[in-house]
Amino acid sequence: MTMSDPVYALNLFDVRDKDEYLAYVRRSAAEVTAHGGRVVAIGRFREAATGDIEPRSVMIVVEWESRDAFDSYCTDPQLADLHPHRVNGTDNYIWHVFDKLEDLRPILKA
Description:
The protein is of the alpha+beta class. The chain has helices at residues 18-34, 67-75, 83-89, 105-108, and strands at 7-15, 37-44, 58-64, 90-99.
């Protein structure tokens, strides 16, 4: 995989301050799109089916055109005032980036 291949960002978190997070949400959707991202799923925690991760109340999956696109969103100086709203509005944030695969062959190769 290269920095120009598509990636998914998995966001798991709890909302700590609704006003702070709302300040982030009001602007983030347009900025994600402008930087090459597309929200593909938003969910509210229902139940733990299996596993030992501490549940988070919110899940968002964003498909990014590339790792470079994701990085441009994270480091754009024009967004320096935006990201603190995410940080201050949430708790227990997990942000993992996954390579986009068409199937499991790259993982299951011998």
